[in-house]
Amino acid sequence: MSHESIARLEQAVCGVFLGKPRVVRLVLTAFFAGGHVLLEDVPGVGKTILARTLARAVDAVFRRIQFTADLLPSDLLGTSVFHPKTGEFEFHPGPIFANVVLADEINRTTPRTQSALLEAMNEGSISLDGVTHPLPAPFVVVATQNPHEFEGTYPLPESQLDRFLLRLTLGYPAREDELRMLETQQERHPLDDVRPVLSAGDVRAAQEEVRAVKVEESLRAYLLNIVTATRSHRRIRIGASPRAAGSLQRAAQAHAYLDGRAYVVPDDIKRLAGPVLAHRLVLAGGLPHGSGDEGERLVAEIAGSIPVPL
Question: Does residue 190 belong to any structural domain of this protein?
Answer without folding.
Answer: no
